Amino acid sequence: MVDQLLDKGWIKFPAEPAVRDWAAAACQVARDRVQDPSLQARWLTCEGTWFVGVDALPNDTSGDTGAGPLAGEAYAAAKTLYGILPLHPAQVSVVYPGYPRPREGETEANFRYRLNRDAAHVDGFHATGPERRRMLKERHAYILGLPLTECSAGAAPLTVWEGSHHLMRTAFAEALKDIPEAKWAETDLTETYKATRREVFETCRRITLPARPGEAYIVHRLALHGVAPWQEGAIAPPDGRMIAYFRPDLPEGNRDWLELPGGERGALPPSPHAATPPGYFTQEEAHTHVSPFPKYSGGGVESRKDFNVGGSAPCIGSGLSQPRASRAARPPRRLRSIGARSGRAAMMSRRSSGVIFDQRAISSTVRKHPVQIRASGCTTHTRTQGLSISLRVQMGALSFNCLPSCASAGPVLPAGYMRRRPRR
């Protein structure tokens, strides 16, 4: 399912009891916060139709609001892709019937954009200065949405422009390629942002993501998204359409916002500014350091190298920060136990030895293969070597079709071929 997030920029997870229980407990806490007069004075806007609620939920870094930490498949998938990052107090976004109405200080053009384009945006870009230039002030790892109230599909659902994260990442990678990471927050990206947004509207499909308590969804950090208008006849409780959003911040001192999975199809080239930030393992350290996470111990996983060969992963609090010249930090790969790996190897050995009769004859350990370089004579040798191997493979395929049951009346073979049984 994670592949959908990397390809389309969003993924929705079915309801789970653990997530439903968390949502019920969080809703009780959020309801009191939404009614707090001081928070209403700060966050209730759009003529009373939207409670923005940034950092309104008083959870701890595990997502616990008093009834247990956040769990479920969605959060597990986020940790698999981006590592274990501390959770901030969640945003509690509440929308009421009649949304949208003009926001305080909003121009007529901005309100039309909210009404017609769902106020679509990429998180982390702040309108800075009197001219409201767009600058990257926050670098989130992902957006995790958890509905807290039961509503119908027309009650101002989240909207996402599918595949928009690919376009955004390509554009921002080009705009920031020669700018050191430390200066990203001071870089004016307004024109890049607006031009790419127009391209997204022209080329990407807009989808809506209505969801119920117990369900969850992840949106890519670079995906263009917004909130749909409240539809006539939509049903919601008096609490309104209430959703908790987590957007954990990525560690600073690196280019992970551009280079972590799920943006451009295919990996980006190594960055000249790449270095291992505090809280990350280098590849060399991963081979010797024992995992500090208790959940990663056991089941055949004894050290960091057992689940992170070839990459680096966030390790909060490890304090390791040696520079790495080859590439940027990478999140942990999916855990694989030693038993599962050896079982698959044995299965593949049985399958391949049963059908590939000429494997030994064409193996490079038995029959030396040519070194392929652009030199006179070498290309000819490579071509003739390939023809010889092709002939052996064809003979093996014909032998496979000539089982003992049809040996007496087997197929007519071309000149130069001979029938033989497969090796036992």
Over all CA atoms, what is the radius of gyration?
28 Å
In the predicted model, the low-confidence regions spanning at least 5 consecutive residues are 263-343, 349-361, 395-411
Could you say which structural class the secondary elements and strand pairing correspond to?
A: alpha+beta
> What is the mean pLDDT?
76
Count of beta strands: 12
Percent strand: 5-15%
Which geometry do the CA atoms define? globular
Q: What is the helix/strand order?
A: HEHHEEHEHEEEEHHEEEEHHHHH
Count of alpha and pi helical runs: 12
Q: Largest beta sheet, briefly?
A: 7 strands, antiparallel
Give the N-to-C terminal Cα separation: 41 Å
Helix content: 25-40%
Strand sequence of the main sheet, in spatial order?
A: 1-10-7-12-4-3-2
General description of the model:
34% of the residues are buried. The strands form three sheets. This protein has a seven-stranded antiparallel β-sheet with strand order 1-10-7-12-4-3-2. Strands 9-8-11 form a three-stranded antiparallel β-sheet. Helix 6 packs antiparallel against helix 7. The protein is α+β, with helices and mostly antiparallel strands and 424 residues long. It contains twelve helices and twelve strands. The radius of gyration is 28 Å and the shape is globular.
